[in-house]
Amino acid sequence: GICVPLVAWSLLALAWSWSPAAAYVLIGVAVACYLTLSFPIAMGVLAVAAVMVYPLTLLGASTLRVAIAVFVAAWIGLIVGHRIEGRKPSFLEAVRCLLVGPAWLLGRIYRRVGIAY
After folding, report:
1. pLDDT of 28-41, one tens digit each?
2. pTM more than 0.70
3. What's CA 26's distance to the chain center, in Å?
4. How many Å apart are CA 52 and CA 28, to the nearest integer?
5. Which of 10, 15, 17, 105 has an alpha carbon 20 to 30 Å from 58's alpha carbon atom?
6. Are 66 and 17 in contact (CB under 8 A)?
């Protein structure tokens, strides 16, 4: 789904609006966490993060407003989607579960293209 990457992007954008250095630290911490699980997943997350950073360099003063709007819209999309499916988002169980979504999506992509992880 599109909502998980949007939540991740919005959190990165929130950090960026405070300080680009904070966003890079967030990326570093996430990649370090994924490295404990899977090198290919960690490298995929790093590549996706690089793509996610680019629009942040263009938003300027509107970064915080856009980040909040995307965060709220993505969570509404997650909640509606999970209600339709009849289950709650796993993110609600614990903050650490936030890392599961991007890894799960990358795992699905890797399986489709034949990358072992």
Report:
1. 999 999 999 899 99
2. yes
3. 11
4. 14
5. 105
6. no
